[in-house]
Each structure stands twice: as structure tokens, then as C-alpha cells.
Amino acid sequence: MTGRRAERRRTWAIVSLAVPAISSRKALTAGVLVAQLVAMAAGLAQPAFNARIVDAGVIAGDVDYVQRMGALMIGVVLIGLVASMAAVACGSAIAAGISADLRLAVYRRAGELSTADYHELGTASMLTRTSADTGVVGRTVFAFTSVAMSAPIVTVGAVILSLRQSVQLAPVIVVTAILLGVVVGLYVARVTPLAGRLQRAVDAVNRVLREQLTGTRILRTFRREHTASDRFGIANTELTVLARRVGALQVLLLPSVLLIANVAVVATNVIGADLIESDDLTIGGLTAFSGYLMQIVSGVSLFVALAAVLPRAEASAIRLREVLDEDVPDPGPTDIPDRPRGVLDVDFRSVDVRYAGAEQLTLSDVTLRCVPGGVTAVIGGTSSGKSTLLSLVPRLLDSSAGEVALGDRPIADWPLTAVRSEVAYVGQRHALIAGTVASNLRLAYDDATDDLVWKALRVTKMADTVADRGGLDAAVSQGGSNFSGGQRQRLAIARALLHRPRVMVLDDAFSAMDRSTASQVFTSVRAHLPRTTFLIAAQQIHSVRTADLIAVLELGRVVDQGSHRDLLERCSVYREIADAQAPVRAR
């Protein structure tokens, strides 16, 4: 991933995002172009009107001519105003549409990323990319379509028309253009690297804030609010410093442009006065040239406005491209030829797993054949690799070496969709989303009838609780926070039951239940799915003692496997775990 990201930084990512989106909105784009052309024509006509009014009206004393030309000029101005408003409206619609499309695309791609790639990007960064970065790109597209698109035509047109008034004043235009180009170039060169750092600093603030909001109760329990405040202060200070540096450069930009413009106007008037005295230029011609000069400066100022947002927009576009261009597994078809029938077994064959950037293997040479149609348990301490091992089965992760077989067929040969049609996974974090009980459970099976949903709830001993809360339409808050930890786990297991899996992976899915409830729920689940292969992970002995096969993990290695009684006799690691839990363990 890193190499591809470095390569993308050498390209104009903003163009690759904006051009296809703009070209797909042909009607709005045509509206912008037509409206901009009308507005530009109206703007370029005004200095010429001024010149005629001065030379043929004011100097000649022809009041009627001044009134006629003045009325015509007002009409042209009104036409230009309406055209400008239309251009802004069309440009705003294009920009809003692009932002919406990008948000949807990033959201969908986030759901397709592998677990490793998603964790490498980080939740905080994904939130920033989906909200802030898409907004920055949208605003930049708006600036381009509604304003900056007209800048080249206005500038070139004003240069040509000004030279028609007086070629002798051309050096003023040349020097002004060079100075403005130098100022804008220096600004872009200084701001571009800061823009990328600024977006990463926003990520850091979001990450720290999210961690602290999630862990508020823990921080209060251990009275570590000051530590959390210090961490946020460091991240916030870095963001503030970078924002001030970018702001300081932006503050210097506009005054520099105005200074150059004002000096150019003074130079025009000084040189123009000599030309008028020598009859090489009329007063109206000088007035028109000054008007065109200001339009040239205005056109360059539009470039400056775009330059002010372009570095940050490019940084945001690169970050969006990192997500959108990330390789994702091909889900493939749900059905495959020669799909194994009957009971499906799981076999780990000399599996190694190393996370990106890690020096040590998380799993090393793991060989484990799960009991087909039975219960295989994995037990071990914290960071022993249990979750990593179980994540290989639904292909949330892929092994670095060795292979995992599903039904005697390497899991890498299975289409991803086919794997996940066979495997149900209940992780440590029970992903309940805001909605209702029914909407959460039907994530596993859209067409599940109410009877099927109630049956799954009865199996997991949640039917009475849900009925007391108003039935299947009972509200579920974000993360299921209006349910207890054990209730959330049982809802997650009920959802997995609706999937009707041939392999069920339960990663510490009973940890929040009391021992009696956990035993009842698991017994009921086993009876409901008698031909399903179960692979469970736990830290408590009572959760695994009845399993057909228990594998003991330590530091990513299987140190022994067997029944509960056999492991108590011969495995020191298992015995240590059992002895540590002796006060709560029934011998």
C-alpha cells in the first residue's frame, strides 16, 4: 500500500476525481459553460462602454449619448449578473453531487476493504476522509466550475482588448503578470506540503477524541482525565500550529496581489498621462485600459483563490484515492462448482500470520483440524493470537504462510462471497447498529420472517427481553448501548443463527454473560444447529471445558490440543489458566 500511495502523490489526484464526475453531469456542465461565457462577455464589454461614454459623450458634451450608452451598459450588467448567478447555481449543484458521490464511494469501499487495510487506515482517518476530505474536494470543484473556469478567458480577453487600446502600455501588463505568477508560485510551493500535514493532524485529533469519548467511563474510574486532556492538548496544539502557518500564508497572499495591482494602476496612470499629452492615447482609452487591467488582475486573483484551496484539495484527493484505489478481494459468486456437501470442516495447515510492519509473527506454524460438526475451542491469554486465528476462517484476514482449508479445499480458492455464505462470525465487538431488533437481525437474512426472527431470539434466550421492550420493533441505539453486554452478545448470536451457517465462529462471544446463561445459550445454539462446525475462542475454562477439542495458544503457537481432562494432566499452560480461575471454576 505504501508504494502505491507514494506514487499517487506525484499525480494530480484532484483531476482524476473531478473530471469524470463533471463529465457525467453534461447538462449542468453545459449550463455552467454557457452562463460563464455570457457573464464574461458582459464583463469584458464594460470597459469599452466606459471608453465610448468618456470620449464620445462626456468630452463631447453629448448628454443624450451618455444616457443611451448608460442604459445599454446597465442592461449588459444585469445580463451578466443573471448569468453569473446561473453559473454559481449550476456549479453548486455539480459540487454537491460530486461530494455526495465521493462519500458514497468511500463508504462502500470501506465495507469492501480487508480488515488489515482498514486497520492500517484507521477509523478516525476514514471518518475524516468520508466527511471532511470529500467536502474539501467538493468546494474546490465548486470554485473551479463557478469561478476559476472563467479566469483564463477573462485574462486572455482583457489582455487582447487592452492592447487594442494602447500597445505602449503592454510592459505594465507583462511585469504585473510576472510578479503575480511569482507570488502564486511561491504560495503553492509553501502550502502544498503543509496541506497534507494539516489533514493528518485532523486525523490525529479525531482519533484521540474518539478514543476518549469511547473510554470516558474508564478514564473517570481511574481518574485519568488529566492524561486524556494532555493527549488531546498535544494533538490539538499540532493542528493549531499547522493551521496558523497555512493561515499566515493565506493572509499574506491577498495583500500581495492587491499591492501589485495598485502599483500597476499607478504605473498605468503615470505612463498613460504622458501618452495622452502626446496624443497617443485618449482619456477614454486610458479609462478602458485601466478597466481591462483590473480585469486581468481579477482573473489572476481567481487563480489565486483556487491556489489557496488547491493544495489542501490535492491532499484530500490523494487521501480519497488511497481508499478508492485500494485493492479489494473479488467477492466472486455465491455458489461454486463442486461445493462440499454435508458437514463442513475447517483445517489450519502450518499457518503463519504477520501484520504489516510487525517484526514478530502473530501466529506461527499453527496446525489445527477442527472437529467436523463438533465444537473446537481455542483458549489462551491476552495477545495469544486467538482472534487472529478465528479471523482467518471468514477471511477477515489472510495467512502470510500456510493455508486454511474449508471442506478440504483451500479457503483461498473459495470466492469470498461463497466463504461468507457458509461461515457466521460473532466477534468480540457485537456490531449492533441504530434501528430496531428486527432490522439488526435481518442483516444476516433480509427475507427472514417474523417467526424466524422470534425463533432465533428464543434459541438465544432473548425472546422475553425483546417482548418486554415492545417486540421486534424495539429500538436499538447506536452500538446497542440500551442493552446490557450479555444481551448485546445474545442478539449478535441470534443474528448469526439466521444466517444458517455450516461453520460458526464465536470469538469470546459469551464473555459478558454469567456462567449459567452462557451455558444455556450455547447448549440451545448447538441443539439448533446440530450439523454445524463450531470454532470458539475464550479466556475462561468454563466456556471451553465441554468442547470436543481444545487448542491451547501461547504467543501465537499451539502448545497442545486435546480434551479438557487430557490438557489438565499434561499441559502446563492450560493448567496454569485453570489454577488461576480455580475460585470460580467447578472442579
Automatic annotation (TrEMBL):
<dbReference type="InterPro" id="IPR003593">
    <property type="entry name" value="AAA+_ATPase"/>
</dbReference>
<dbReference type="GO" id="GO:0005886">
    <property type="term" value="C:plasma membrane"/>
</dbReference>
<dbReference type="InterPro" id="IPR039421">
    <property type="entry name" value="Type_1_exporter"/>
</dbReference>
<keyword id="KW-0067">ATP-binding</keyword>
<feature type="domain" description="ABC transmembrane type-1">
    <location>
        <begin position="30"/>
        <end position="312"/>
    </location>
</feature>
<keyword id="KW-0547">Nucleotide-binding</keyword>
<feature type="domain" description="ABC transporter">
    <location>
        <begin position="348"/>
        <end position="580"/>
    </location>
</feature>
<feature type="transmembrane region" description="Helical">
    <location>
        <begin position="251"/>
        <end position="272"/>
    </location>
</feature>
<keyword id="KW-1003">Cell membrane</keyword>
<dbReference type="Pfam" id="PF00005">
    <property type="entry name" value="ABC_tran"/>
</dbReference>
<keyword id="KW-0812">Transmembrane</keyword>
<dbReference type="InterPro" id="IPR011527">
    <property type="entry name" value="ABC1_TM_dom"/>
</dbReference>
<dbReference type="InterPro" id="IPR003439">
    <property type="entry name" value="ABC_transporter-like_ATP-bd"/>
</dbReference>
<dbReference type="GO" id="GO:0015421">
    <property type="term" value="F:ABC-type oligopeptide transporter activity"/>
</dbReference>
<dbReference type="GO" id="GO:0005524">
    <property type="term" value="F:ATP binding"/>
</dbReference>
<dbReference type="Pfam" id="PF00664">
    <property type="entry name" value="ABC_membrane"/>
</dbReference>
<feature type="transmembrane region" description="Helical">
    <location>
        <begin position="169"/>
        <end position="189"/>
    </location>
</feature>
<keyword id="KW-0472">Membrane</keyword>
<feature type="transmembrane region" description="Helical">
    <location>
        <begin position="292"/>
        <end position="311"/>
    </location>
</feature>
<protein>
    <submittedName>
        <fullName>Putative ABC transporter permease/ATP-binding protein</fullName>
    </submittedName>
</protein>
<feature type="transmembrane region" description="Helical">
    <location>
        <begin position="72"/>
        <end position="98"/>
    </location>
</feature>
<dbReference type="GO" id="GO:0016887">
    <property type="term" value="F:ATP hydrolysis activity"/>
</dbReference>
<feature type="transmembrane region" description="Helical">
    <location>
        <begin position="141"/>
        <end position="163"/>
    </location>
</feature>
<dbReference type="InterPro" id="IPR017871">
    <property type="entry name" value="ABC_transporter-like_CS"/>
</dbReference>
<dbReference type="InterPro" id="IPR036640">
    <property type="entry name" value="ABC1_TM_sf"/>
</dbReference>
<keyword id="KW-1133">Transmembrane helix</keyword>
<dbReference type="InterPro" id="IPR027417">
    <property type="entry name" value="P-loop_NTPase"/>
</dbReference>
<keyword id="KW-0813">Transport</keyword>
